[in-house]
Design a protein that fits this description.
Number of strands: 8
Shape: globular
Strand content: 35-45%
Distance between the termini: 26 Å
Largest sheet: 4 strands, mixed
């Protein structure tokens, strides 16, 4: 019945700043930047994989009324409502070094875990991102 997750969203306070971070610092690629009139549909994806997009969503209509959007902006600003993403890489240490050199906020350094090696970063809005090289599933 269900096949794939094709889109998910993460709350950002400034879509231009988010686009700069996710494309120029993190290395994702722009998928869609379209003014729908009632909102800006801004998505990015891992290079070469447009089938899975991340909507960089600014709080407001049509998803929420202005009063709710103001509350969400306040919570995001306080770091109390960050989203969460996991992105895989072929080399966690190299990705860590590249992102650190680009000035990305690192929340923890690459660490060996039972599932692989990963590290944490935070986007300019407080959203947590884990980047790692995952071990192959058992039996592969």
């Amino acid at each position: 019945m269900l096949k794939n997750i094709t889109q998910s969203s993460i709350v950002v306070l400034d879509q231009d700043e988010a686009l700069d971070f996710y494309v120029n610092k993190l290395g994702l690629e722009l998928n869609t930047d379209q003014d729908l009139g009632f909102m800006r549909w801004l998505t990015v994806n891992v290079p070469g994989d447009p089938s899975r997009q991340i909507l960089l969503e600014k709080p407001g209509p049509p998803a929420m009324d202005e009063a709710t959007a103001a509350q969400v902006r306040e919570l995001v600003t306080k770091g109390a409502m960050g989203g969460w993403l996991c992105i895989s890489t072929d080399d966690a240490q190299k990705s860590y070094e590249t992102l650190k050199a680009r000035g990305v906020e690192i929340t923890d350094e690459p660490t060996e875990k039972p599932y692989g090696v990963d590290f944490g970063i935070r986007d300019p809005f407080g959203n947590a991102i884990r980047i790692g090289k995952l071990n192959a599933p058992a039996g592969e």
